[in-house]
Structures are given as structure tokens and as C-alpha cells.
Amino acid sequence: MTQKQNDKSQTSPQTKKISTYITIIVLIVLALAIVALILAANAALLTPPDYTAAGILALIGVIAMTMSVFTLYQSRRQTAEMKIEIPKVMTTIGCSDMKCDSKTTREFQRGDYVYKELDAPCQKCASKQMITAIYKEVKEKEKKYNV
Ligand SMILES: [Zn+2]
After folding, report:
1. Over the stretch 90-123, which tens digit does the pLDDT of each residue have?
2. 51 and 97, same structural domain?
3. Which residues contact 95 (CB under 8 A, 6 or more apart)?
4. For 36, 48, 50, 125, which has the most beta carbons within 10 A of its beta carbon?
5. What is the 98 CA–ligand 1 centroid distance (Å)?
6. What is the DSSP string of 2-20?
7. Residue 7 shares a structural domain with residue 57
8. Are residues 96 and 123 in the same domain?
9. Same domain, yes or no: 80 and 23
10. What is the DSSP letter of 121?
């Protein structure tokens, strides 16, 4: 039993927070399902055997087990989808010379702000570069939900 619980720590910290609650519920239901199946086996092995109780307990056990496995599968898929949808923050770097059209985009770095002058000179005209925009990258899929 303790070994089974240790396996659950494999999930990354981001998904762990969301799925821990569901995982606990699923484990409880799964444990109850196992208990029901054990009780069903005990009832069947009685002298005389109680097949009615065994049948009901076995049915409860199988249904509970199926439900918990299905819930676990569903939650895993949902957290995986959520992980992909985290938008990136991008920084656009432009040239301080108005005549130069040099423009580069990179991922946001700590300490970035708009109009911040950068140490690295422009690759085209060698004048100073500065941050012209910081924005969150919005995917096409998400745009549909905005009204
Ligand atoms: Zn330039």
C-alpha cells in the first residue's frame, strides 16, 4: 500500500496541485472497491455460500473501480491540456534609430521593461537597441473565446 502511494510523486509540481485532490478521492474509491471485492470473495467462500451478497458486493466493487480509473484518466488528460495552454510572454527589441527597421523578438527576461536600453548594439546600424513592446503570446485557438 505504501509503495503504491510513493509512485504518485512522479507528477510535476504544476500538475500535482490540481490533481492531488482528485487523486486522493480516486484512491479512496479504489480502496473501497478492493474492500468490496474482498468481502464478495469472503461471502462466496462462506458455508453455506451467500451468492446474493457476493454478487452485489462484486458489482459494487467493479463499478467503483471502473469509475475511479475513468476519473483518473480524465483528470490526467485535462491537466496535460492545461499545461500546454500557458501563454508565453514575449519581448520585442527595436532599434533606437527611427530610420532603422531592425526588430527582434525573444522570450521575456526578468528585468525587461518598455523603453529599456540594451547593451547589445543593433546588428544593422550599430546604434543602441531598446525594448519596444512586451506582450503575452495569444494562440489562435484562444482568440475565438474572446468577445
Ligand atoms: Zn538599427
Report:
1. 999 999 888 888 899 999 999 999 999 999 999 8
2. no
3. 101, 102, 103, 122, 124, 125, 127, 128, 129, 130
4. 36
5. 8
6. HHHHHGGGGS-HHHHHHHH
7. yes
8. yes
9. yes
10. P
